[in-house]
Design a protein that fits this description.
The chain is built from eleven helices and 16 strands. The protein folds into two domains: 132 residues, Rossmann fold, CATH 3.40.50; 182 residues, 3-Layer(aba) Sandwich (L-fuculose-1-phosphate Aldolase), CATH 3.40.225. Helix content is 35%, strand content 23%. It is globular, with a radius of gyration of 20 Å. The protein has 331 residues and is of the alpha/beta class. The model has no long low-confidence stretch (mean pLDDT 90). The strands form three sheets. Strands 9-13-12-11-10-14-16-15 form an eight-stranded mixed beta sheet, sandwiched between helices. A five-stranded parallel beta sheet has the order 2-1-3-4-6, with helices on both faces. The chain has a three-stranded antiparallel beta sheet with strand order 5-8-7. The structure holds zinc ion. The site of zinc ion has 7 residues, from loops. The site of zinc ion (ZN) has 7 residues, from loops.
Length: 331
């Protein structure tokens, strides 16, 4: 993890709480945070440092009223404003309603979806993990966690293969995600990959999966784990999950299609426990790739990356659809 988060200052404001369990959880989280990145605690929401246009602001919310306070705050549009909330399941349901979050979202605040409490004695409390908060801050600043080596802009010239049929299939998979209402919370999330040439075609980072344009497709020739480098052809950055896609194609020769999306009812639904990895792993990393591929050994064609999203794989798109029909039936 990059400690500097692209050299942006990270400011954290913690709303106070009388609940010892919440305070203690936040304290431990901040200690963990200190091990991996540098930040400054800001006591006063009017502190001028929060007006730094290049800053990352992280608000640790402990009650429903705190959201009302945040609504009154004005910070520059360019700051990254992240809200992590430490609430009971009952209050979490209030925040989960779209209309509740909308006024803050309109002001540019981003929400970290909490994890189930890791403390089994307090199952009614839901907290985000340190890794997930950091991951979100990282995601909003740099997105891709690998080095890009651009080989060329022209996929056909580079591979000597006409990519049009494969690109058309990727666009069709995007429509399928739309028709199935998967990836609904954020259609820019997720990614699609199809084996192609000696590598694979994938959607570019931040591609709207419901409206994929042909120039949003990249060809990933290889991922080199030792130097954490993706060798790519195209004009845009490839999916942040390129390292994982590469590992799946490498280790599963019968897999030609991978569909990744974020659908919260599946990500957090109990009926999908058997498909879920043990705990949240930062997205787009070699570690995540290892864990997801290992989980595929037992589930064969579908994995829920805990606290993150879904990966369906198959010999072709028809097989992936069969799998997802089976999965969606469990909802
Ligand atoms: Zn994802």
């Amino acid at each position: 993890m990059n400690a500097s988060l692209e050299n942006r200052a990270l400011y954290i404001h913690q709303f106070s709480s009388n609940n010892i369990f919440k305070s203690d959880t936040i304290y431990r989280l901040l200690v963990d945070f200190r091990k991996v990145c540098q930040y400054q605690i800001i006591e006063d929401l009017d502190d001028t440092r929060l007006q730094d246009p290049a800053a990352i602001l992280l608000f640790l919310v402990t009650s429903i009223d705190d959201f009302e306070v945040l609504k009154q705050c004005k910070y520059p549009d360019s700051t990254i404003k992240i809200v992590a909330y430490f609430l009971s399941a009952e209050h979490f349901a209030i925040v989960d309603a779209k209309n509740f979050r909308l006024p803050l979202k309109a002001r540019g605040f981003q929400f970290i979806y909490p994890d189930l409490s890791i403390d089994r004695s307090r199952l009614d409390l839901i907290y985000p993990s340190c890794a997930k908060i950091l991951d979100t801050a990282y995601f909003k600043t740099t997105r891709n966690k690998f080095i890009l080596d651009f080989l060329s802009e022209d996929i056909e010239r580079h591979t000597q293969i006409d990519p049009r049929a494969a690109i058309a299939e990727i666009i069709e998979i995007g429509w399928y995600l739309r028709d199935m209402s998967l990836n609904h919370a954020d259609s820019l999330a997720g990614g699609i990959a199809i084996r192609f040439g000696s590598g694979f075609l994938t959607t570019a980072s931040k591609t709207d999966k419901y409206r994929i344009a042909a120039d949003c497709i990249c060809y990933v020739e290889r991922y080199l784990p030792r130097s954490n480098t993706v060798r790519v052809v195209g004009t845009k950055q490839p999916s942040s999950e390129s390292a994982l896609f590469h590992k799946i194609f490498l280790e599963r020769p019968n897999t030609n299609t991978i569909v990744h999306f974020h659908h919260k009812p599946i990500t957090f639904g109990q009926q999908f426990d058997r498909y879920r990895t043990a705990s949240y792993t930062p997205y787009g990393t070699e570690l995540e790739a290892q864990i997801v591929v290992e989980k595929l050994h037992s589930t064969s064609d579908f994995v829920v990356a805990a606290g993150h999203g879904e990966f369906a794989i198959g010999h072709d798109f028809d097989r992936v659809q069969d799998t997802l029909d089976r999965i969606v039936n469990l909802l």
